[in-house]
Design brief:
Number of strands: 6
Number of helices: 1
Radius of gyration: 14 Å
Number of domains: 1
Strand order of the largest sheet: 4-1-6
Order of helices and strands: EEEEEEH
CATH architecture: Sandwich
CATH superfamily: Jelly Rolls
Length: about 90
C-alpha cells in the first residue's frame, strides 16, 4: 500500500520487483556507485518485492522505510504458487 525505501549500510542486495504490468526489475542496492549500485532504492506501492544477497557477498545490513506508516494488518506475503500463476514468464526468479 506504500512506497518502500531500501537503504544499504554494508554489503550488497539485489531487490527483485514485479510490477502490476508483469515486468521484472532488479534494483542493485550497494555502495559501489561506479558499478551501478545505489545506496537507496524505492519500490512503488502496488509492486511485489523480494531481496537476495548476491553470490560472493557474505552478508548485508540495511533498512527499510515505509511512509505513510507501516501497519501489520495491511501487510501481505506473496505465496510462490500465486506469483507463478500471476507472473508465469518470471518463474526462473520466483
Amino acid at each position: 500500500n506504500n512506497e518502500e525505501l531500501w537503504l544499504i549500510h554494508v554489503g550488497r542486495v539485489l531487490v527483485h520487483v514485479l510490477d502490476p504490468e508483469g515486468a521484472h526489475h532488479v534494483l542493485r542496492l550497494g555502495l559501489d556507485l561506479a558499478a551501478g549500485e545505489r545506496p537507496v532504492v524505492a519500490v512503488p506501492a502496488g509492486h511485489w518485492q523480494a531481496a537476495e544477497i548476491p553470490e560472493g557477498t557474505p552478508f548485508a545490513f540495511g533498512a527499510n522505510v515505509c511512509a505513510p506508516p507501516f501497519y501489520w494488518e495491511e501487510f501481505s506475503i506473496a505465496r510462490r504458487e500465486g506469483l507463478l500463476r500471476e507472473y508465469p514468464n518470471h518463474a526462473d526468479v520466483i
